[in-house]
């Protein structure tokens, strides 16, 4: 990966943002597959990938939302800022 990080799953070989987004947001899919989609989207480094990842900030698991926020931080893409800001301003988020 371009971030020299040790990721808990390899990036998916799928390159379709729509397909990766579907996997990312599928709360019935295996967590490992969702992580693979998350890292593949991060590695694409496109606006479309950033927007797909940002949609994951609405997923049910706080830990999963944290991981998505982390990869959005790695990307440092300006299109993620409104979504990260909204997440930070959410009073229902704890710590």
From TrEMBL:
SUPFAM superfamilies to which the protein is assigned, alphabetical: ARM repeat
Q: Which Gene3D superfamilies match?
A: Leucine-rich Repeat Variant (1.25.10.10)
Pfam families per record: HEAT_PBS
State the Gene Ontology terms under molecular function: deoxyhypusine monooxygenase activity
InterPro entries documented for this protein = ARM-like, ARM-type_fold, PBS_lyase_HEAT
Q: Which residues cross the membrane?
A: none
What name does UniProt use for this protein?
A: Nero
Q: What is the native source organism of this protein?
A: Noteridae sp. CSR039
Q: What is the lineage of its organism?
A: Eukaryota, Metazoa, Ecdysozoa, Arthropoda, Hexapoda
């Amino acid at each position: 990966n371009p971030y020299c990080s040790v990721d808990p799953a390899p990036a998916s070989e799928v390159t379709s943002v729509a397909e990766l987004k579907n996997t990312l947001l599928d709360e019935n899919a295996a967590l490992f597959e969702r992580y693979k989609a998350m890292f593949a989207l991060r590695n694409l480094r496109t606006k479309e990938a950033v927007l797909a990842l940002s949609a994951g900030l609405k997923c049910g698991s706080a830990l999963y939302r944290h991981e998505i926020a982390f990869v959005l931080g790695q990307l440092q893409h300006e299109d993620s800022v409104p979504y990260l800001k909204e997440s930070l301003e959410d009073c229902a988020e704890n710590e």
